[in-house]
């Protein structure tokens, strides 16, 4: 940086040099003064850097989930598992959908962040994320045995083609363990990429009761299975099967992969949706997509997003909180809207207690009703919120304030005490104690 500044000054207009070629005047500034200015500047930079180093202290780490291990009888090995619970998990008694993510060491954090953001914007329900990393180095076992038009193998490696074994691992080991340890419902999604999309597709056409949502990344739909049929042909058969129950499947590939595969593979992403248009089972949502300007694994970012959009469609997740709080009965409007969503998906979906910098949630709507002095609407709203989140000190404190405003002092104290009790060992305990103190001087 200093070399650049020096040249700007020395070679600029108004620079004079003495007989030895050393600049003595720079744009009217004495050389000694310039050197002194430069020395002070460098000293300040060094001092600031030193101070920053002293002030930067490491506290506890950022927590994105927990790391567990499971002894699999099916795989005959210990598998590492990553699990992330929604923040609301500890405040509710709700049972959540689960998203199982293959290649967990690569896709778990990405999926968790995407789900958190999308749920916070009311695009999908909060979910439990379960990542399955390749800690035993056997990723190739999940690959389907695939062949090109000439009969040449597509995937190579010892032990490939054991997708059935991994589905058995899900059915017998992993899913029962997750269901035993956590509050989950029956809606399960699975994500796989390249070799690890094997169990995703195998489950879709062989064990459709295992999952409801399927996200296939870095897909290969033109390659042939051992049966002689292509992946694309099998997908057409399954998506058009009228006997199948509700499901959603996303098939995505990278534009740079399509360039390598050729026009025949590219055409499938146009032709298959055309074939399915009039024969698809209406209970199955599907999307085939080429993500342009992305490579094999780089497409996972938009691919997961578009996969989640396929499972949880934006036109269905149209939740208008403004309409609710302006209605004659906000609590009933909230209950009705989430009952509709729950009936559509076949599992209970509850509204967000709170979300990042958004008004479209229970707490912010409560604050708006409070500011509008619509206490007769606010109290039923918060009573409903308690049903969704019976362990939330935030909601009980809001109820306390509402009852204070309504002149019901005894109830205000009861709910403030409940907030304090639930907030024990939390960072916000002082706030709730302060609220209670104002009610019990």
TrEMBL record:
**Keyword set includes Zinc-finger:** no
**Which keywords has UniProt assigned to this entry?**
Membrane, TPR repeat, Transmembrane, Transmembrane helix
Name by which UniProt lists this protein: Uncharacterized protein
Q: Where are the TPR repeats?
A: 393-426
Q: Which PROSITE patterns match?
A: TPR (PS50005)
Q: Does the keyword ATP-binding apply?
A: no
Coiled-coil intervals, chain numbering: none
* SUPFAM superfamilies cross-referenced by the UniProt entry: alpha/beta-Hydrolases, TPR-like
Q: Where are the transmembrane segments?
A: 34-53
UniProt xrefs under InterPro entries: AB_hydrolase_fold, Esterase-like, Mycobacterial_A85_antigen, TPR-like_helical_dom_sf, TPR_rpt
